[in-house]
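Example record

One chain of 285 residues, shown exactly as stored in the release files.
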Amino acid sequence: MNRTEETRREDTITAIATAWGEAGIAVVRLSGPEALAIADGVLALAEPLSETPPRHMRNGYLLDEKRNPIDQILAVWFAAPKSYTGENVVEIHTHGGSLVASRCLDLLVCGGARHAEPGEFTKRAFLSGRIDLPQAEAVLGIIRSRSDEALRAAARTLQGELGAFASSIYDELMTLSGHVEVALDFPEEETQDDGDTLALSLQAIVQSLEDLLDRCSTGFLLREGVRVAIVGRPNVGKSSLLNALLKESRAIVTSVPGTTRDLIEEVLTYRGIPLRLVDTAGIGT
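Predicted structure tokens for this chain:
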């Protein structure tokens, strides 16, 4: 890790954690060494967050630059290392308007925080050892799930199932490597590790690796889906087929050949697998 990356890891970062738009609440998140101080600088609470026990919610107000209240909020913090990122984390729950969430974010940035890069909270969780790489990918898998099967698969990975399986294979490889080294370094010694036993152990590891590959392939299929192109001559019903499968009028259908000129892509979930249907222009147009 270069010096620049180390310095950026020491920054306190902030971002809106909820989806953009109007809703009941919006959550703005802070993570880093100055999270509590920055939050206390823009909030009016009965007691500062820095004097509040972790995981205890406080009701108060969000203050603008002139110390005027602009929203009634709830605030809570999570102490390192028992937080999502492994750092001190603050969550400010505002009302769900786009303006108030943006103003809260701007105030935190003015207070010393830095805008988080895409995925930086999860990156920090990985770098601090809170989650492993499969679990980090599972976070995105849960967010992008389009079926119950994909959601369940991502949740199992987030619980550590895939990482534990990979770790067990690694342990088996290290054990086999040790037995092979003993056999090579001390050929005159009598051991229980003859050639046939080692071959069976290696065969078991190969089978485990194939199972791991199948799991990963299945997870990728559930997350990314299958891209299916609807191809044919002009005016043979490609767009009508797309609309029928989607059960909505997504593509324009007319009796004039060549109506579809650009690719139209939509996702249909069939038996838990996302199908990325692509309506194409007629062949020859």
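Notes: DSSP finds nine helices and ten strands in the chain.
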